[in-house]
Specification:
mainly alpha, 58% helix
């Protein structure tokens, strides 16, 4: 009889600590998820502003996460010019 009570008491203690741990872990996960969502939206807006992706938004201005990559890519030659190599510039 004492063994059964010990097992039940141990299970109760384990259940209480497991519940407390998972509640704490859930709160930390919500905080991290909020931070990652904010960072993802920031990166998405920057990519949208630079013309790399199209970022549709809903009525509240939040991304609908239906991103499409433009096929034109980044126009680096138009933005920065075409690099040229002149003879005699290399150091030996």
């Amino acid at each position: 009889m004492g063994t059964i009570i010990s097992v039940l008491f141990g299970g109760l203690i384990t259940g209480i600590f497991a519940h407390l741990y998972y509640v704490k872990a859930g709160k930390e996960l919500k905080k991290e998820t909020k931070e990652l969502r904010s960072l993802t939206e920031f990166i998405g807006k920057k990519l949208h502003d630079s013309g790399v992706i199209e970022l549709p938004t809903d009525d509240n201005g939040r991304s609908t996460y239906e991103q499409t990559t433009k096929s034109t890519g980044i126009k680096s030659s138009e933005s920065f010019g075409t690099p040229t190599i002149k003879s005699g510039d290399a150091t030996e």
